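Q: How would the structure tokens look for this protein?
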Amino acid sequence: MSKLNWCMRACALFVLWATTTVALPAQTFKTLHSFDNTDAAFPWATLVQGSDGNFYGTTQNGGNTACASGCGTVFKITPNGKLTTFSFDGTNGSDPYGGLVQAANGDFYGVTTTGGAYNSGTVFKFTPNGGLTTLYSFNPNTGYSPQGGLVLASDGNFYGTASSGGPATGQCTPAGCGTIFKITPKGTYTTLHNFNGIPDGGFPLATMTQAPNGKFYGTASALGNAGSYGTVFTITPKGKFTVVHQFDNTDGAYPFGGLILGTDGNFYGQTDLGGASKYGAYGTVYKMTPSGKVTTLHSFEQTDGDNPVSNLVQGTDGNFYGTASYGGTHPNFGTVFKITPSGKLTTLHNFDSTDGSYPYAGLIQATSGKFYGATFAGGSSSACSFGCGTVFSLSAGLGPFVETLPNSGKVGAAVRILGNNLTGTTSVTFNGTAATFKVISKSEIETNVPSGATTGTVEVKTAKNTLKSNVVFRVTK
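A: Here is the predicted structure in token form.
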């Protein structure tokens, strides 16, 4: 399959074949579900593990037939592959590209790219029992067609980007180059920044991440001083915007995916194109310091992957795990890989279409230690021309841990702890400070940040294990 250019891939989606289990040395890949369009089709976004231990995601098509190809869905899937879907109907949104984020109260929040009052996308709330509530309908004046998900910030509000819209000036005509916005859990919307093309970039497509200093770090896929190859930016909760890096193609181009904060304090991400491969510009994995100095860790060569468009995830072993949308040993179906902080890349799985193809979504590491992901196409169904997509798991031999929701908060703040086999919990500590807690289920504990707690690891002791959080919990003032 020929590669589409960056603009086509940003604005249009492909259509493309999963029910095999492949055993590889040191890891086990398993297809959990193949979509068939009647339940859902074409998942783009990274999954999220809910407080009930199940996984939640979105698909761009399938579901309610009020839209020609279905309006898209929110779906829930158990670790064993049992699927439940909830459909959009167009009036409350359609075509959700972005993933979901779960708030401490258990509700999920996300965005759709189209639909709503102006057919320009929506911000929605989804309750685990299946209720969908529209919080905001985008319009071209304030930004529209959000493709990245929301980030739940330490102030309790949500922050995100719209890929188009805002003032139409300069390079940003006839439509704007996109916006950055804040929205409260009740739906009060504020535009924080309008992209202007040059010098700050445009067309942001990824979910931002919040650093310990309170700033958000994000990527703009194109437009900037350095030949329009994209930028990395920071923005404060009050809207102070700064470009910290401009890609020049040799160090990567068109960062469709966002950044994650590594345990070493640096940021890690991928670019869709660019790099130093002798075979062509197939994209990169890079490290960036908080001040914006970028180091290329790996340039893809197509045989090990091609055109990564998702976020990385740092595993509990300290390595980074991700997907490349194309490439691999099978023609252009994509790969799953591991890369060390120093840049040594290992291919963990090559998709062959029967088990999925085009993994635009990134991976998550579940509290069991396994990784979970989705492919945009492939699988066993013939309802879509090249398969309707899959959900899969990959075991890389890593052990269980606990995850806090959220991963920062002040003393007294409510925190959910997610994990496995938590029923026999005997103690919960925040960096050594004991907290009172209540076991809700085998996968969830409710607690509060205890007085005297400091930033550090959350630890849960059960009758059989001591489980530590995968990231440090940041105690804020």
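The longest strand covers residues 27-34.

The chain has two domains: 24-395, 403-475.

Upvote if useful.
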